[in-house]
Amino acid sequence: MMKAITLAALMACASTGALAQSQPWLDKTKPADERAKAAVAAMTTDEKLTLVFGFTDPDGVAKQPDDIVSPAVKADVKAHAIRGAAGYLPAIPRLNIPAQWQTDASIGVRVEGMQRTALPSSLATAASFDPAVSEAGGKMIAQEAKASGFNTFLAGGANLAREPRNGRNFEYVGEDPWLAGKMAGGLIDGIQSQHMVSTMKHFAVNDQESQRTTVDATISPEAMHQSDLLAFEFVYETGKPGSVMCSYNLVNGRWACENEYLLNKTLKLDWGFKGYVMSDWGAVHSTADAANYGLDQFTGFPCCGDRQPWFAPKVFKAALDTGEIPMARLDDMAKRILWPLFSSGVFDDPAKVAPIDFKADADVSQKAAEESLVLLKNDGNLLPLKGVKSVAMIGGHADKGVMAGGGSSGVTPVGGNAVPGLEPRTWPGPVVFMPSSPVEALKAELPKARIGYDSGDDIASAVALAKSSDVAIVFVTQFMGEGMDGTLELKGNQDALVAAVAAANPKTIVVVESGGAILMPWKDKVSAVLESFYPGIRGGSAIARILSGSVNPSGHLPISFPASNAQLAHDAIAGFGKPDGAPVHVTYDEGAAIGYKWYDVKGLKPLFAFGHGLSYTTFAVADAKATVDNGAVSVGATISNTGKVAGKGLIQVYVAPADYKAAGWEAPKRLVAFHKDAVAPGAPAAAFSQKIDPRLLATYESADNSWRIKAGTYHVLFGQASDDLPVSIDVTLPDMVWSAVHK
Ligand code: BGC
């Protein structure tokens, strides 16, 4: 059937066509590169400068002197910035270049007072070991962001959990570069599939929050490339973020946002990054150095850290006039900022405020949580709770909701904060509980059981309830947030509460809601432990469905859980507890031996190992293969369900050189592949095969910027956790060297 074409539509087409001729960057058929170049060529210096200086907080902007922020820009920010959001850069209407509306962060849209859907924490999602889960989450939060008027997502946190007490580990994706790369890369991929720009952040070695704006991290280039940078390199390759956010800290004596080694050399030259580097909020400390060493966009003025207007037009122009910053560099900055706006589709599919289907979005979040919760211990198969007549639920505000992390990634949940008023009330608080009560959800799961709740404030009262119930479930929480580091010990009476309940009822289960690892002095006294991290907007339902057996747990730890503080690589965190802004220094002399690698080097047995996670069924990994073709290693295996219920099994593959020191490795083994699949009992085994990224077998050599594999025997290990690798196949590799510069 022929479509009727109205006159108005024809005229619109004609005028769009004409516009695309006079403004060729509006022509969707042209490559992003060409469009960005054409737009920059049409810009005045002032217009280019509009792209490189971003704002936050319209009230703070209004107070700035007119020669720093012009009255016209103040009016624009007031009229168009989304209040309570992270950042904003004005449009250039003459050229039809849209404004940049920036929102935090990796688990959902954060705007103070705007209720949106929260995913589980990124660390929780990493425990799914399934990049498709991250991707689905990324899509969902990007749809909400677009429907809220945003086109740039400050997501993709991927700093490694080098320091287990880092307050932001919950925003990141674990301790292993390959896992982090796949999971944060998947999130970014999901976000950008919705025609938004996503960042990856915080580049780089921003591995502690104490004194984050002044701490100088010393680390060798070798160690950095085999750990923190390798994670980012994999994220970059997987998710292709349009933007990279440089961090607050210094790395080897240079601020990360003017760190030539990180930004110009590694990211832009070696990796070939074509997008733009945006600063973390207030992380800029100079004009010419920052611009010349790789920063493209100063964001978030006048917020945080160093509040000076280093990229304000007046200041930047002065540096252009003296030649300190060449005009070609400003052109490059403008082009880099525009390129992802074209390549990711922001120009052609602009954000529009629209209704949001919160129910459907919460379903996505719940599914992510159900894939991510980690069953750490389950003595005597106490879980799932089948046929129990009475359950004592204790502590953790489980009658109201589940905990979330604090700081700029904290989403105001749909339905509001379930437990308002907890400390800290101010940054990085307020402490938010997602309104998803495990108690109510378990009542729905076990309608015949008598379910009681006790707050746990009075241990004697909790013990009495536990004694009179078949099973006791204690909820413990650990609040973590941006700008703070924590301790592995639980706060308040929680350890004592668990011990007392466990003494009163041998069938005690602990559900942990934490930012990262915690110590569990009561581990041997309880029957079961379920780690839920921060499980998101439907966390209570996900927990209840796992406790009841409606869902079979399939998460595995993306971090190691230390058995004690004495096992950590650093006794104390540099600058911990000191007033903000004290210059501190940390030397990462453990190098790339992070997490399980550290435990392996030191021969330590953690409380729970990286990759550990139980199921209500059992799996067997078989048919393991490892082959070498022209130096390239491929691995494959199958996983079958040897138990009684359906579930999802995870194959983990590690490589261990016969002599790790002779191979130059930081540690005895590295994760090189993983694959998760649903398999029913008796069903054919699920198979996977994968080529191993050669960097995972190599060492980085700074002398000639290369990767190098030492000839020798390497054991390829297959199993279901880093401490459970029963199958081993040897391969022999030849000497290999290749450039670290991407082709
Ligand atoms: C955080 C970033 C965040 C930015 C904007 C900073 O304090 O470190 O992760 O994206 O604020 O809110």
**Straight-line distance between termini:** 48 Å
The 3D shape can be described as globular
Query: Residue share in helices?
Result: 25-40%
Counting helices, strands and paired strands, the structural category is alpha/beta
Low-confidence stretches are: 1-14
Give the total of beta strands: 30
Q: Widest sheet: strand order?
A: 2-3-4-5-7-10
Number of helices: 20
Ligand kinds = beta-D-glucopyranose
Give me the Rg, rounded.
26 Å
Largest sheet: 6 strands, mixed
Strand content: 15-25%
Query: What is the average per-residue confidence, as pLDDT, rounded to a whole number?
Result: 96
Which key features would you list for this structure?
six-stranded mixed sheet; alpha/beta; 743 residues; binds beta-D-glucopyranose; single chain
Description:
This protein is an alpha/beta fold. Strands 2-3-4-5-7-10 form a six-stranded mixed beta sheet, sandwiched between helices. It has a six-stranded mixed beta sheet with strand order 12-19-18-17-13-16, sandwiched between helices. It has a four-stranded mixed beta sheet with strand order 9-8-6-20, with no helix packed on it. Strand 26 (699-701) and strand 27 (706-709) form a beta hairpin. Helix 3 packs across helix 14, helix 7 runs antiparallel to helix 15 and helix 16 packs parallel to helix 19. It is globular, with a radius of gyration of 26 Å.
